[in-house]
Write a structure and sequence with these properties.
Blueprint: H1 2-16, H2 28-33, H3 41-49, E1 59-65, E2 68-74, H4 76-98, H5 103-114, H6 119-122, H7 128-142, H8 147-156, H9 158-163, H10 179-201, H11 211-229, H12 249-252, H13 258-276, H14 281-293, H15 314-326, H16 330-347, H17 354-364, H18 369-381, H19 385-398, H20 403-415, H21 419-431, H22 438-449
Antiparallel strand pairs: 1-2
């Protein structure tokens, strides 16, 4: 047992040690620059531990070199990444104990530790809200006496509100008897959070329900299932389901897509196996993966269409299921671990700084117009208008009918004195307003014509 724990900890430290020197990226800056107001020192500590506020104080490390000890002061970015490494390590150790402290749970912990799909939720400081519910859920299984407190904390988070259903994939499924009390207690907070996201990030098309929603849900499940098992594309900006409610809607609502059939086969296989092997660990793990993934399958969209952090909790159960299948085949286990660790090692650089987050996105998924758009925004912010224009044109080549890309190109052309082409792109933007966003789009177009030249992220 102790050897297994030591190996799990060592793998995490070796694989993620280099992130200690990384800086903040994306949503990290929002929390860093605009933290909530702390009511007192205990509330501040709560905000810091839960990722709603950064640890501003420098941390102290003791380093031994040439037989002497030196005191090293860590920057806040280093401490934030150290904290995320410790959380990720704790999750992997908790997986080991939650699923029986056996060889199978050891393999499951290593699979989860090395799988790059988890990193947005467990290695990214801003994704801490996805990691802490996982940890509290697993600890509730490990220490049933503390489960009321731990599950209360788990369900306090948006991801944990429904993620508590993952208990069905553990031996402590009877703890689900407490779930209705936690749901009743947190339902107002959960509803407020979902409505806020839905009102600010979804479009009119997202709120219409017909059979195409089923198609999209099955397709999304197929994509996540494939990505978790074979992390072929690791990026903040996936092209899959991009512009789902906009110019690519017709394509994504079609069943003629490989991920639809993968999803349909996956769901059918899980349901069949669960019905014929109910009560067995593999069946229950697969059911837990299914029920914790469904909320992110775009049936009700309250956030971006695809994000790897949505897989962080479901992947606990999928890796446990995978471990049950391959654990006693050393060559297959070695192949999976080598593949996962290699992909993680070469994609962790996306957390290094704002430059690399977009550069890796382009490398991993060159067909994601949003990645080119974000790259252009960074060039615009440095007043490199010609470079920004080139990058927005690249985005346009991928998706010719994106309103914000077209109006940004018009603004760039206007800044560079090419008024004729600017007028053409402004007219194209006016023709491709996203349904439900007519009022906002009209305002941006009028601003442009008055000379204010808005840039849209």
């Amino acid at each position: 047992m102790f050897n297994h724990i030591a190996i799990i900890i060592l793998v995490n430290l070796l694989l993620y040690f280099k992130t200690l020197r990384y800086r903040f990226v994306s949503d990290d800056f929002t929390v860093w620059k605009n933290p909530p107001v702390a009511k007192n020192r205990f509330h501040k500590l709560w905000l810091q531990c839960t990722g709603q506020m950064k640890f501003y104080a420098n941390s102290i490390q003791f380093v031994r070199a040439n037989g002497k000890f030196f005191v090293v002061v860590c920057k806040k970015e280093e401490f934030e990444h150290l904290y995320t490494i410790l959380i990720h390590t704790a999750i992997c150790v908790a997986i080991y104990f939650a699923f029986g402290a056996s060889w199978i749970s050891f393999v499951a912990a290593l699979l989860y530790a090395t799988n790059p799909v988890n990193n947005q939720g467990t290695m990214w400081p801003a994704g801490r809200g996805y990691a802490l519910p996982i940890l509290s859920l697993l600890l509730a299984v490990c220490v049933p006496m503390l489960s009321p407190v731990l599950l209360f904390f788990c369900s306090w988070w948006t991801i944990g509100f429904h993620g508590i259903l993952g208990l069905i994939g553990t031996t402590k499924w009877n703890l689900l008897i407490m779930a209705p009390f936690f749901w009743l207690w947190h339902c107002r907070k959960f509803k407020t959070s979902i409505n806020l996201k839905s009102n600010t990030e979804s479009f009119s098309a997202d709120k219409r329900y017909d059979f195409s929603k089923v198609t999209v849900a099955v397709k999304t499940f197929g994509f996540y299932l494939t990505l978790c098992l074979i992390p072929f594309r690791i990026t903040f900006y996936h092209n899959f389901l991009q512009s789902l409610a906009g110019s690519w809607a017709k394509r994504w609502h079609s069943i003629w897509d490989r991920f639809f059939w993968i999803g349909l086969c996956g769901i059918s296989a899980i349901i069949y196996y669960a019905c014929t092997h109910w009560g067995q660990p593999l069946a229950m793990a697969l059911v837990a993966y299914l029920v914790t993934t469904i909320p992110y399958c775009n049936i009700y969209r309250a956030n971006q269409e695809i994000a790897e952090r949505f897989c962080s909790l479901p992947n606990v159960f999928l890796m446990y299921a995978l471990a049950q299948i391959i654990a006693f085949h050393p060559a297959i286990v070695a192949a999976f671990l080598a593949f996962y660790a290699t992909r993680t090692y070469y994609t962790l650089i996306q957390y290094k700084d704002e430059y690399f987050i977009t550069e890796l996105a382009i490398i991993e998924d060159p067909h994601a117009w949003w990645a080119w758009h974000c790259r252009a925004m960074k060039r615009w912010d440095t007043q490199s208008y010609k470079e920004a224009l080139i990058l927005w044109v690249m985005a346009k080549l991928i998706s010719p009918k994106e309103f914000k890309v077209l109006i940004n190109i018009a603004t760039c052309l206007r800044m560079l004195g090419n008024n004729e082409e600017a007028d053409q792109h402004l007219a194209l933007a006016e023709e491709n307003v996203v349904a439900g966003q007519e009022a906002e789009a009209k305002d941006f177009i009028e601003q442009h014509r008055r000379g204010k030249l808005p840039i849209l992220l």
